[in-house]
C-alpha cells in the first residue's frame, strides 16, 4: 500500500514511524511518501496562503500550489484522494476496511482556515472527518487513517487478530489479564486458568456483550439496526 501525504508539516509524520508502523515501512509492506506543499510555492518567500475573498479571519491555502504538489505525484491514475476535514463523513472501522483494499491513497492535509474550494472540487474523491471536533490541521487525522488502515495490510500485525477484535464484530473487547495471578489482592478470573477453550471463548463473548452494553449501548443498537 502506498500513501502519499500532501502537507505543510511533513515532520509531524515522524511520530508515525515507530513501533508497528515503523516495522511495516522497513518490511516495505507500506510506503509513506511525504510531499511538502511549500516546495511548490512560486513565491520568493515560499508563501502558500493568502487572505480569504469576502473577508474574514485567517488565511486560505492557494489552489495552484496544492495542485502543483498533487501533480508531482506519479502514477496517480488509480489513487484515491482523501481530504481530511470536519465536513467529511465520520471515519469508522467499516471505512478502515474499505480503504485497506486500495493500493494507493493520497491524503490532503489542510491548515489555517483550509484550502481553496476549487482545488478540493477538482482533485478530491472523498472527504473524511475523524470526529466532531476542530483541529489545527489535517495531519493528525491523516496519521489516524494511515495507522488504522495499515493494520489491515497482510504482514503488518503478527497475528490474524484483526478479525476478532473490537469493532470488527461491532462490539468492544473482553478484558485481558497477564501475570501476576494476584495483583493488589485481585485475582484473575478462574475460567482463564481452566484450559477449557470452549468455556474461555463463551466467557469472553459474555464479557464482550456486558461491557458493550455498559460502556457503549449505542453500538448494540447499531448491531440491531444492521440485522433488521
Ligand atoms: N481539521 N477530521 C481544519 C479537522 C479535521 C477533523 C482538518 C481542522 C482540516 C483545515 N480533519 N483543517 N476533525 O478538524 O479531519
Describe this structure in words.
- The protein is an alpha/beta fold and 228 residues long.
- It folds into 2 domains: 2-150, Alpha/beta knot (3-Layer(aba) Sandwich), CATH 3.40.1280; 164-227, tRNA(m1g37)methyltransferase, domain 2 (Trp Operon Repressor, Chain A), CATH 1.10.1270.
- It has 7 helices and 9 strands, in the order E-H-E-E-E-H-E-H-E-H-E-H-E-E-H-H.
- It has a 5-stranded parallel sheet, sandwiched between helices.
- A hairpin with a 2-residue loop joins strand 8 (182-183) and strand 9 (186-187).
- The protein is elongated, with a radius of gyration of 22 Å.
- The mean pLDDT is 94.
- It binds ligand 4HQ.
- Residues 84-86, 110-111, 114, 129-131, 133-135, 137-138, 141 line the site of ligand 4HQ.
Amino acid at each position: 500500500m502506498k500513501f502519499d501525504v500532501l502537507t505543510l508539516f511533513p515532520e509531524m509524520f515522524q511520530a508515525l514511524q515507530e513501533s508497528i508502523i515503523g516495522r511495516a515501512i522497513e518490511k516495505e509492506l507500506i510506503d509513506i511518501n511525504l510531499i511538502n506543499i511549500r516546495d511548490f510555492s512560486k513565491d520568493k518567500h515560499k508563501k502558500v496562503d493568502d487572505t480569504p475573498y469576502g473577508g474574514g479571519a485567517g488565511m486560505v491555502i492557494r489552489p495552484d500550489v496544492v495542485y502543483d504538489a498533487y501533480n508531482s505525484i506519479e502514477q496517480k491514475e488509480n489513487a484515491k484522494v482523501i481530504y481530511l476535514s470536519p465536513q467529511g463523513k465520520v471515519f469508522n472501522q467499516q471505512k478502515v476496511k474499505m480503504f485497506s483494499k486500495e493500493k494507493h491513497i493520497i491524503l490532503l492535509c489542510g491548515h489555517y482556515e483550509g484550502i481553496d474550494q476549487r482545488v478540493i472540487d477538482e482533485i478530491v474523491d472523498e472527504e473524511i472527518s475523524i470526529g466532531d471536533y476542530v483541529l489545527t490541521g489535517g495531519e493528525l487525522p491523516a496519521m489516524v487513517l494511515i495507522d488504522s488502515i495499515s493494520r489491515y495490510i497482510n504482514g503488518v500485525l503478527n497475528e490474524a487478530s484483526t478479525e476478532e477484535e473490537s469493532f470488527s464484530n461491532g462490539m468492544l473487547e473482553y478484558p485481558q489479564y497477564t501475570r501476576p495471578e494476584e495483583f493488589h489482592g485481585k485475582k484473575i478470573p478462574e475460567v482463564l486458568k481452566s484450559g477449557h477453550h470452549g468455556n474461555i471463548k463463551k466467557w469472553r463473548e459474555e464479557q464482550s456483550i456486558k461491557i458493550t452494553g455498559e460502556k457503549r449501548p449505542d453500538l448494540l443498537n447499531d448491531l440491531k439496526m444492521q440485522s433488521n
